[in-house]
Write a structure and sequence with these properties.
The chain crosses the membrane at residues 46-70, 82-98, 104-122, 142-164, 170-197, 222-241, 253-276, 288-307, 327-352, 364-388, 394-414. It is a multi-pass membrane protein. The protein has an 8-stranded mixed beta sheet, with helices on both faces. Helix content is 65%, strand content 11%. β7 and β8 (565-579) form a beta hairpin. The chain is built from 20 helices and 8 strands. The chain folds into 3 domains: 1-191, Up-down Bundle (Growth Hormone, Chain: A); 204-415, MFS general substrate transporter like domains (Growth Hormone, Chain: A); 427-579, no CATH class.
Length: 589
C-alpha cells in the first residue's frame, strides 16, 4: 500500500506539510527568544504567546468551512491548491526571515495556520476514498507516524538552523524548498472525483462552526470519538509544552535532553501507530483502544516516580543523560506513554472515517479539529493555573494528567457502550477463544442483513459480534443468565426483544417487536437471530427482510490431540455461508 500512487504522493505531501509548519514556527520562536530580531516592540513572552495563538486561531475560524469545501470538491485538486498556497506563503516567509520583519512573520504564521486548518479535513477524509477497508487502519497509522516524526524532525531542524552561522538564510531556503517539494509531490496524487452534485457553499465562520459540531453530535459514537481524540491532544500538548521546563527544573538538563525527550515521545507514538495495524488484524477495531488508555495512565504514573530525587550540580547533555542507568526507567516510561498514545488515537481516526456518511467525512474531521484546538487551549489554561496560582510542579502536573486519563477512560466506557463491547469481544476472539474464519467477507460492510446461527448463549453471541466491525442487533428472547458476559451483552449491544405471550392451550410462545425490527432494517443494521427463533418467527422476519442479504453463521470447537488424548481446543472455527431468499447456500461462480 505504502508504495502505491494512491497513497505515497499523499503521504509525502502531508509529511512535508507538517515538517514545514514546525520548521517555520520554531525558527520564528527561537529567533525571537534568542533576540536575533532587533527592535522588537513587544515583550518576548507576549510575542511567543501571540504567535501560538495566531497559529491556532484559524482552526476555530475556518475548520467548519474547510470541511464543507473538502466534501464538495475533488480532494486531490484541493490538496494541490493548498500546497500551491503554501509555496506563495513561504516565498513571503523567506523574505520576512531574511529581512527580520517580525510583523510579517506573525501574519504569515496566521496564514500557515489557515492553510493547515483547510488541509486537515481533506487529509483525513481522503483516506477512506482511496484505501480499502482492510487498509484504513494501516493508512491512519502511517499518517500519525509521519505527522509526529515530522514534528520531531522539524523541531530539531529549527534548533540546528538557528544555531548555525547563517541562520536567516538557511531558514529561508529550508522553508521554501520544503514547500516546493510538497507542491511537486501533491501533483502525483490521483484525482478523487465526487460521486454526487456538490452543494453551494457560504462562508459563515461562527454559525458554521456551531453547525459543524451539532452535526457530528447527532451520531453519538462519532462524537465520543471526537472527544477522545481531543483529550489525546490535551495530553499531548501538555507534555510537549512542558518538556523544556521539565528537563531544566526536574532533570537539571539542557536543550539536547529536551530534544531526546521529544524524540522518545514522538517515536513512541510512531511505534504505537504501527502496533495498531498489527493488533487490529486489518479492520477498524475499537477493542485495542483501552490498552492505549491504560498505558497512558500506568506509564504516566510511573513517570512521576521514575524521576531521580538527587539533582546534580552540573547540567546534563543528551550523552551524559543517557550514560546514567537511573534515567532509563524515565526514558522507557516516556517512550511507552507515546506508544500508548499511538494505540489510543489511530483506532479513533479510523472509526470516524468508517462511521461517517459519504460526503460528510471531512466535515466530521473539521469538527474534530475545532474540538482539538479548543482542548489544547484549555490545556494551556489549566497548566498556567496549576503551575501558577495553585503552586503545582510540572511533575505533579504529569501525575494529575495520568489520573485524569483514568477518569476519561471510565467516562468513555460509560458513554460509549460499543467500546465496552468491542474490548470484550476483542479479548474473547483474539486471546481466549481465537477464531479461524472461512468466507470472512460474506457479512456485508454496509446496509441491513440477516444473520442466522445456532448460537444463543452470551459468549457465542459476543464471538459473533467480533466477526463484524459493525454493531450487530440481536433479535432474541429475554435471558435468565446472570453472568458477567450476559450482563455486558445486555447493557452494551442493541437488542430487539421477543416478548413472551401465552397461547390459549396454555403453551408459551413469543411475539417479535415488529416496530423495532422495522426501524433496525430501515437504519441498515445487521440483525442476528438464532435458528430456533428464525424457524418460529420466519413469516414475521421475512415480511420485513425479504430483500436483505442472509448469512448463516456456525461456531464449531476444534478437536485436538495431546499425547494420544482427545480434547477440545480453545480455538473456534467459524463457517460463514451466504444464503439466498430460500435460505439455501449461494453457489460460487
Amino acid at each position: 500500500m505504502i508504495l502505491t500512487r494512491r497513497f505515497l504522493p499523499y503521504f509525502i505531501t502531508q509529511c512535508l506539510g507538517a515538517l514545514n509548519d514546525n520548521v517555520y514556527k520554531n525558527v520564528l520562536l527561537l529567533l525571537v527568544t534568542f533576540s536575533q530580531i532587533e527592535s522588537l516592540p513587544l515583550d518576548v513572552n507576549l510575542f511567543v504567546n501571540l504567535a501560538a495563538g495566531l497559529f491556532i486561531l484559524p482552526f476555530f475560524l475556518f475548520s467548519a468551512h474547510a470541511g464543507l469545501i473538502a466534501d464538495n470538491i475533488d480532494k486531490a485538486a484541493l490538496i494541490q491548491r493548498l500546497k500551491l498556497l503554501e509555496v506563495i506563503i513561504m516565498c513571503c516567509g523567506a523574505a520576512a526571515i531574511i529581512t527580520q520583519s517580525y510583523l510579517l512573520m506573525l501574519v504569515l504564521l496566521f496564514l500557515m495556520g489557515t492553510q493547515s486548518a483547510f488541509f486537515g479535513p481533506v487529509k483525513y477524509s481522503l483516506l477512506p476514498m482511496v484505501l480499502a477497508d482492510v487498509e484504513l487502519v494501516r493508512g491512519n497509522a502511517w499518517v500519525e507516524m509521519g505527522t509526529f516524526i515530522s514534528i520531531l524532525i522539524g523541531t530539531i531542524a529549527a534548533g540546528l538552523i538557528v544555531a548555525s552561522d547563517h541562520a536567516n538564510t538557511l531558514a529561508a531556503i529550508t522553508v521554501l524548498v520544503l514547500a516546493c517539494i510538497g507542491y511537486a509531490s501533491s501533483l502525483f496524487i490521483p484525482a478523487v472525483p465526487l460521486g454526487f452534485v456538490p452543494k453551494k457553499l457560504r462562508f459563515t465562520p461562527f454559525s458554521g462552526t456551531v453547525a459543524s459540531i451539532k452535526k457530528v453530535r447527532k451520531t453519538h459514537s462519532v462524537w465520543m470519538a471526537v472527544i477522545a481524540i481531543s483529550w489525546f491532544w490535551f495530553l499531548g500538548a501538555t507534555y510537549l509544552t512542558q518538556f523544556p521546563n521539565f528537563a531544566k527544573m526536574h532533570l537539571h538538563a539542557g536543550a539536547t535532553v529536551v530534544s531526546l525527550l521529544l524524540a522518545l515521545f514522538s517515536i513512541g507514538i510512531a511505534v504505537g501507530s504501527f502496533l495498531c495495524d498489527r493488533l487490529s488484524f486489518k479492520q477498524v477495531e475499537l477493542g485495542i483502544l483501552p490498552f492505549g488508555l491504560l498505558g497512558l495512565s500506568l506509564f504516566g504514573i510511573d513517570l512521576y516516580f521514575a524521576v531521580p530525587v538527587n539533582i546534580p550540580t552540573f547540567t546534563y547533555t543528551a550523552s551524559s543523560f543517557i550514560a546514567e542507568l537511573k534515567h532509563y526507567r524515565l526514558m522507557f516510561d516516556l517512550f511507552m506513554v507515546g506508544v500508548s498514545g499511538g494505540l489510543f488515537i489511530v483506532p479513533l481516526y479510523a472509526f470516524i472515517q468508517s462511521r461517517t456518511k459519504e460526503g460528510q467525512c471531512a466535515q466530521a474531521i473539521a469538527a474534530n479539529n475545532i474540538m482539538n484546538a479548543l482542548f489544547m487551549v484549555v490545556a494551556a489554561i489549566c497548566a498556567i493555573l496549576f503551575l501558577g496560582p495553585l503552586g503545582g510542579s510540572i511533575l505533579s502536573l504529569f501525575l494529575m494528567l495520568a489520573f485524569a486519563n483514568l477518569v476519561v477512560g471510565l467516562f468513555l466506557f460509560i458513554k460509549l457502550p460499543e467500546l465496552r463491547l468491542r474490548f470484550i469481544t476483542y479479548l474473547l476472539a483474539r486471546f481466549i477463544h481465537p477464531l479461524s474464519v472461512s468466507q470472512g467477507s460474506v457479512i456485508p460492510k454496509d446496509g441491513s442483513a440477516l444473520l442466522v446461527g445456532t448460537s444463543e448463549c452470551a459468549k457465542d453471541l459476543l464471538l459473533i459480534q467480533s466477526l463484524s466491525v459493525r454493531p450487530i442487533c440481536f433479535l432474541a428472547r429475554e435471558t435468565n443468565e446472570q453472568g458477567f458476559l450476559s450482563k455486558l451483552l445486555m447493557s452494551s449491544a442493541n437488542w430487539i426483544s421477543i416478548e413472551p405471550c401465552r397461547l390459549n392451550a396454555g403453551e408459551e410462545s413469543g411475539r417479535i417487536n415488529s416496530q423495532s425490527l422495522f426501524q433496525a432494517v430501515k437504519n441498515g443494521e445487521l440483525i442476528y437471530v438464532s435458528q430456533r427463533d428464525f424457524n418460529e418467527f420466519s413469516s414475521d422476519i421475512e415480511a420485513l427482510m425479504v430483500t436483505q442479504p442472509r448469512v448463516s453463521i456456525s461456531l464449531n470447537s476444534l478437536a485436538q490431540s495431546v499425547e494420544g488424548r482427545s480434547s477440545v481446543s480453545r480455538r473456534i472455527h467459524v463457517v460463514l455461508t451466504a444464503l439466498n431468499q430460500q435460505n439455501m447456500p449461494l453457489q460460487n461462480d
